[in-house]
Amino acid sequence: MRLLSILDRSHTIAKPGFSRWMVPPAALCIHLCIGQAYAFSVFNLPMTKLIGITKSAPDDWKLTDLGWIFSIAIFFLGASAAGLGRWVEEGGPRRAMFAAALCFSGGFLISAVGVSIHQLWLIYLGYGVLGGTGLGLGYISPVSTLIKWFPDRPGMATGMAIMGFGGGAMIASPLSVWLMSVFSTPTHVGVAETFVVLGLVYAFFMLVGATIVRVPAPGWKPAGYVPLAEPKKLVTTRDVYVYQALKTPQFWMIWIVLCMNVTAGIGVLGQASAMSQEMFPGRVTAAAAGGFVGLLSLFNMAGRFFWASTSDHIGRKNTYFVFFALGFVLYALVPYFGSAGNLTLFVLCFGIILSMYGGGFATVPAYLKDMFGTRYVGAIHGLLLTAWSVAGVLGPVLVNYIRQYQIDSGVPKAQAYNVTMYVMAGLLVVGFIANFLIKAVDDRHHMELETVDDLVGVA
Amino acid sequence: MSFDNDGGSATTPLELALAWGFVGIPLLWGVYGTLVNAMKLFQ
User: Fold this and answer.
1) Backbone φ and ψ of A215, nearest 5°
2) Which has more pLDDT, A39 or A198?
3) Contact between A297 and B23 using a beta-carbon 8 Å cutoff
4) Which residues of B touch A14 (CB under 8 A)?
């Protein structure tokens, strides 16, 4: 047990001379790994042929059954981020990163056993429950640490980490395909071995991150950093306790802001391939549509860094105003560019929209820090991620059902997405209003200094 | 840089380069592959 004490917060306090620029790579070690979740679909088709090898046999798993793996993982991401946020905050980033590494890589190893003995419930349990818990722990683990190291640029710091989550799939997808090709034989698909290798590689990467990470010493400030003598109206210098934040209207307004921004983006992201082919029939092939999806992923990733960094200069509230106002205009323009056959402007519109989708994820930790202080920002961020879970269901359902309703009503496929775009623009108006209503947190919600010491037990 | 907080020293430029290279190289590889794939849209 004494060995495990190296995971404690007290053992991660940085000594003088430690560079804060070591912390973003530590966070990226975690986020680049857990970002693999977005690439899990590359295993779906191979896992429908584990018995039949070249084509699905009657006893092979169905795609509909396999789709639950990702859904369970995302559910447990939200549940663990919301439920374990306080444990993460109070135990420090190293303990959380270590636990995330064990859960995420352990999920792969259990899933490998599930594939080997062809037991789907083991994959639900492994990647879904255990891996999903690792996703949630990993996602929130570096957030408050980065904000404390970069009080002068909190948006940029968390943007860098959350950019890694967007970039993780870009590494995992080709890596997984390559590994399966290495391990496959005429009588074997190679998924189980790929899971084992990925589990070990991710464990190594994430443990390196846990090793590097440090928290700043109490009272530490970056050289030359002078906090504003008179803080900005929407930036607090005090802290709100994690569960007290739930009692503030500000938390729920930011919840709506995130939910609307993500709903609009995630619905499009899931349907981007089909949408581009149906809106530009004959011009966008299946391969080109794959390129379109890849391009959107790049915008999504770059937007996380760009917009979160920008928010340090123009403020969080203004950044979300840009997302909602510009997003509204772009969604409204998409049907016009589609009917005009202007592929370049169509792609550019969606690129900017997806950059703001990523930017919404990356800017929100700094928004929470401005509203509720740094002490419990990671845990409050965990609770806020339930907005992601809701949006993950709402976005694709809206896009799919509205499209189907349009087609059933006799609307040509090329125009079947027009109403969807207007609905998405409407969601952004709701987000705009919620953002507009956000004011500074009332003083009665702030923690007293003694309360902070009692609850935290650390200096 | 030690694992614990005692006995460590100031971060060196080599440590910074290693840390950033450790995450930066895989990320750039992923971005490059995605970019090459994305170019199919305009071919």
Assistant:
1) -105, 150
2) A198
3) no
4) 5
For A457: left if phi > 0, alpha if psi spans -120 to 50, otherwise beta; the answer is left
Residue with tokens 């290798």: A197
Host H or E run for residue A165: helix A154-183
Count the Cβ atoms, other than its own, within 10 Å of residue A17. Answer: 11
3-state helix, strand, coil in chain A (%, to 5): 75, 0, 20
> Around Cβ A45, how many Cβ atoms within 10 Å?
12
- Copy the structure tokens of residue A143: 């957030």
pTM: 0.89
Among the listed residues A211, A208, A188, the one whose alpha carbon sits nearest the alpha carbon of residue A200: A208
Sorting pLDDT into bands at 50, 70 and 90, what band is B7?
very low
Whether the CB-CB separation of A330 and A353 falls below 8 Å is answered with yes
Please list, in sequence order, all residues whose beta carbon lies within 8 angstroms of the beta carbon of residue A68, skipping any fewer than 6 positions away. A124, A128
For residues A419 and A26, what is the distance between their CA atoms, to the nearest angstrom?
Answer: 43
Amino acid at A181: S
- Token pair of A309 as six digits: 């960094």
Read off the pLDDT of residues A168-202 as tens digits, 9 standing for 90 and up.
Answer: 999 999 999 999 999 999 999 999 999 999 999 99
Query: Does the beta-carbon distance from B41 to A212 stay under 8 Å?
Result: no
Alpha-carbon torsion (A138, B31, A298, A307), positive or negative: positive
